[in-house]
Amino acid sequence: MQRPNVGIGIIIQNAKGEILVGKRKGSHSPFYSIPGGHLEMGETFEIGIKKEVLEETGLIINKPTVIAITNNLRTFKKTGIHHISVNMFTDNFEGTPIVMEPEKCEKWIWIDPRNLPQPHFDASAFAIECYLKNQFYITNQQ
After folding, report:
1. d(CA 18, CA 7)
2. Number of Cβ within a 10 Å radius of residue 140
3. Residue pair 68/127 in contact by the 8 Å Cβ criterion
C-alpha cells in the first residue's frame, strides 16, 4: 500500500518581516519555495528542519516551532506524488543565506509573504497562507 511522504518546511522571518524563499532547480524547478525537505526516519521535526536549513542555506536556526500541517494535493494531482508537510516558523537565526546546493537551488531571496514570487511550490504556498491567516490547517488545499 502506498502512503504519503512526510515533508518539512520552515518560514524564516527576518527583522523586516520578510521571509526566505529559494528559486529551485532540479526536481522542483522552476518553483520558488521556503527551505525544507523530507523528514528522515527517527528524526524529530526540529532536528530535521535544522539539518535541512543548514544544508540548503548555511543558516543556523534556533527555536523552530510547528505552525501548520498541509496536505499537498495539487502536487499529487500533477505528479502522483503525495506529501503531507509539517511547517515550522522561526525568526531566530544566525548567518546570511547562501546557496549551499547549487544543483538544487538557484538563489535565496527575502520577500514580502503577501507577494509571493511565481511559480510557487504548493506546499510552500499553503504553509505561507496558514502563517498569514494564523491557521494550523486550511481545509481546501487543492
Report:
1. 23
2. 5
3. yes
* Grid cell listed for 13: 522571518
CATH number for the domain whose boundaries are 5-133: 3.90.79.10
Angle at 65 between CA 36 and CA 25, to 5 degrees: 10
In this structure, what C-alpha cell is assigned to residue 96?
546570511
How far apart, in Å, are the Cα atoms of 15 and each of 20, 103, 110, 113?
12, 29, 11, 13
- Provide the residue-wise pLDDT of the chain in tens; the chain has 142 residues: 889 999 999 999 999 999 999 999 977 778 999 999 999 999 999 999 999 999 999 999 999 999 999 998 877 787 888 889 999 999 999 999 999 999 999 999 999 999 999 999 989 999 999 999 999 998 765 5
Q: Is residue 90 within 8 Å of 59, Cβ to Cβ?
A: no
Domain boundaries, the chain: 5-133
DSSP characters for 13-71?
B-TTS-EEEEEE-GGGTT-EE-SEEEPPTT--HHHHHHHHHHHHH--EEE--EEEEEEE
